[in-house]
Here is the input.
Amino acid sequence: MRITVIGCGYLGAVHAACMAQLGHEVLGIDVDQAKIDALAAGQAPFYEPGLPELLAEASATGRLRFSTDMADAADYDAHFIAVGTPQKKGENAADLRFVDAAVTELARHLKPGAVVIGKSTVPVGTARRLAELVKAAQPSAELAWNPEFLREGFAVEDTLRPDRLVYGLPTGDGGIKAKQTLDEVYTVALGNGTPLVATDYETAELVKVSANAFLATKISFINAIAEVCEATGADVTQLADAIGFDTRIGRRFLNAGLGFGGGCLPKDIRAFMARAGELGADQALTFLREVDAINLRRRSRAVDLTREILDGSLAGKRVAVLGLAFKPDSDDIRDSPALDVAGQLQMQGAEVIATDPKAIPNARRQYPELTFMESTPAAIAGADAVVLLTEWKEYRALDPAATGELVRGKAILDGRNVLDPAAWRAAGWRYRALGRP
Ligand code: NAD
Here is the structure.
């Protein structure tokens, strides 16, 4: 098929490359010239495992091209909308400026029978409104909403082999046509038996935000239990193992620690609450306010625990911060708990030396006042305390004895509950973690 992907960020760039890999003729469009230049040169504009290789392969086939000019979309059959839907400044609601601008501009160039496919995460009601806009510009065009569930760090795999496909479709012949187009785009995944839920716009939009609300709630649930564990001396990691054996509960997403962040969960649960409020259903989602609050409390708790292992004062103490990205295997620092904690430590008087395998350039732009070191040993050298905030593999594998040789004070905060407390304590460290004695 001939498809465009409009918005080439973490979602769109991966989607464009994967679609080309699957045999489609793809044009990626973005307003960011630097991003498009990098992609056109076969370079990934951000860190995502497997993306550079995929871009190289897809570019070599000649099936993947990039442009900043929406007019180039004119003779394509299907158009994915993958632009950002960030949180509005000073409010919980989603900022739909980019989606509205992209669809409005695209609508001017749609050829008869084209299908517009929304991928961005949007408040319920958006697709129905945009469908009218599309129809007004090109009456024989259709709009579908096809939410995306990829995980950064696994984006290529998740896009090539999704665990489910959801189509939000218009009613009548338009819906049949839009479904045919989507089925053709996803021929490979459907052939592999990927479950498909074909439904209306509203259900499709709500599937996405409900999934994120559920995941956020699961994380905040275990972090709330971690607070109670801290008050009693119980161990939340053993507790999570024990409850996780119940298949109705499951162990995944039950890792207590610094909580969630990134460009999706925090803003999606806030936008969900805001939209429910507009719809008069705000009571249904008041629990998400608590989910958000529990999540943010973990960050201040991490700062407090760092002060505690430094004998009650951060002032003038050298703190090595391991990890800045919101999760491992990503350079994404949007609403990153790690970066937030690093900033708070510095603000409260510590001298922060921060490191991360991939996120330093992004972190430096947001917090130029922090000191950054590329290498882990350099960041740790001479530290009064080490705080592990993003669970990159290399930090999980740190050796307590060797690390002890580098520091000035053997104090460590395990913000992600990924180290072996016994091993660190045996090597003479003062070890603290969230939700563990
Ligand atoms: P992003 O900020 O990385 O990318 C958005 C891109 O859209 C940017 O490159 C921006 O320049 C471009 N853009 C903005 N306005 C444009 C316009 N008018 N025309 C063309 N391009 C335009 O964001 P992202 O993380 O890729 O997220 C995109 C959407 O996908 C969001 O709604 C997000 O919630 C959703 N989503 C993201 C993920 C994820 O893991 N990142 C997963 C599922 C869903």
Remarks:
- The chain has 18 helices and 14 strands.
- The two ends are 57 Å apart (CA to CA).
- Residues 384 and 409 are 4 Å apart (CA to CA).
- The domain at 2-199 is CATH 3.40.50.720 (Rossmann fold).
